[in-house]
Amino acid sequence: MADWQASSAESAPREPECVVQLRAVRKSYNVGSPNETEVLHGIDLTLARGEFCAVMGPSGSGKSTLLNIVGLLDRPTQGLLSVCGEETTTLDDGALTRLRGHNIGFVFQFHNLLGAFTALENVMLPMLGAAGFPSPAMATRAAELIDSVGLTPWRDQLASHLSGGQQQRVALARALAMNPALLLADEPTGNLDTKSADTVFELLRRVNRECGTSVLFVTHNPALASRCDKTIMVVDGLIKA
Length: 241
Ligand SMILES: Nc1ncnc2c1ncn2[C@@H]1O[C@H](COP(=O)(O)OP(=O)(O)O)[C@@H](O)[C@H]1O
Ligand SMILES: [Mg+2]
Fold this sequence. Notes:
There is one protein chain. The protein is of the alpha/beta class. The protein contains eight helices and ten strands. β1 and β2 form a beta hairpin. Bound molecules: adenosine-5'-diphosphate and magnesium ion.
């Protein structure tokens, strides 16, 4: 087994049962300035291992802020957040980056692929980032991931030459590169036609079922939300019961 595979397996523990736990999480922007605004007003949320949870709510209600906090891209202003059993609020930036890199995959509405790189290269990037050097094992793993999202014929195409649905499938394969315990998907189907959206959703569902990956899936589509294990509604910075 290559070094990057060993280290990712070791640092992505499959215990404990709660992958995400938020207690009374508040988030303010522009703290200390005259235009300080509190956007999240005390969020309690638990995501169990293997749970697939839809996140719905109006635009501007705080869904992306919530996902960015759970994904350790941003810090809560108050409250407690544990990810994969680790309390994060006291961790320094380096520790947060390591926890994120080994445990969390992201898929955004706009795929954020590097257009001048091939589909395969885009999927290899997180592994390269973690190991610091390329290896044949990475290319093999990336090719398997590309295959799992049904894109083998397009593997060596530049990302910028793929359709929107194909790009989002590459983004999903890239998010899975480190075999994360948690997948955060912020409106991943928001920009897709119905058929492509269904394909991407089914891929997310399959990863969730086959790998036990926990998923937070932001969507405005009630039909897709109804196919998740549960739905939370975010309204004005609070989870509505
Ligand atoms: N970096 C920021 N600085 C100040 N306000 C922000 C910032 N990011 C988001 N907001 C505000 O926080 C609120 C929630 O935004 P967001 O989490 O993006 O909502 P949603 O994803 O539900 O549409 C909005 O009022 C938005 O304008
Ligand atoms: Mg948003």
